[in-house]
Amino acid sequence: ALAYGAGNFHSANATEFAKNVTEKSGGKLTIVTHPGGSLFKGGEIFRAVRTGQAPIGVVAAAKGYFGFMIFGLMLSVVLTGALATYMANYIQRHIWIAYIGLVFILIVGLQLVIGGLVDLEILNINEEFKKYF
């Protein structure tokens, strides 16, 4: 389930991922994407995944780089599962790391907001810059 329109890079990433899964599995596994809120609206996706109505919901910030998306997913799983306590203590000792993380979160959040406004045609930006949103 995707809240983003079919032309948005988030949906394009998900479609490419689905295509790669089908190719790499020899057709044994197929993922069907539902862009533009066609399956569930943006605010409903989390609930739909949590309650089992949809197997996965996607919000990606990899900007078209499939490898970054997979790397980020794997890194977050490892850091959350295996290193959570260590990382929390380390970040408390080196607070500047938390501020760098906060800056990245704010940048990605801003990109998502601007991208959503562009998708909803509330905001128009130069075509040259649309790849960043």
Structure, described:
This protein has about 130 residues and is mainly α. The protein contains five helices and no strands. The protein has helices spanning about 10-25, 45-50, 65-80, 85-95, 95-120. α4 crosses α5. It is globular. About 10% of the residues are buried. The model has no long low-confidence stretch (mean pLDDT about 80).
Task: For this entry, give a set of tags.
56% helix, mainly alpha, 133 residues
Radius of gyration: 17 Å
- Report the end-to-end length measured between terminal Cα atoms: 19 Å
Structural class: mainly alpha
Shape descriptor: globular
* Mean pLDDT over the residues: 78
Order of helices and strands: HHHHH
How many strand units? 0
Share in helix = 55-70%
Residue stretches low in confidence (pLDDT < 50, at least 5 long) are: none
Strand portion = under 5%
Q: In DSSP terms, counting alpha (H) and pi (I) runs of 4 or more, how many helices?
A: 5
Main beta sheet strand tally, sense and closure: none
Write the layout of secondary structure elements.
Layout: H1 9-24, H2 45-50, H3 66-82, H4 84-93, H5 95-119
Helix pairs in contact: 4-5
Provide a concise account of the structure shown:
The chain is mainly α. It is built from five helices and no strands.
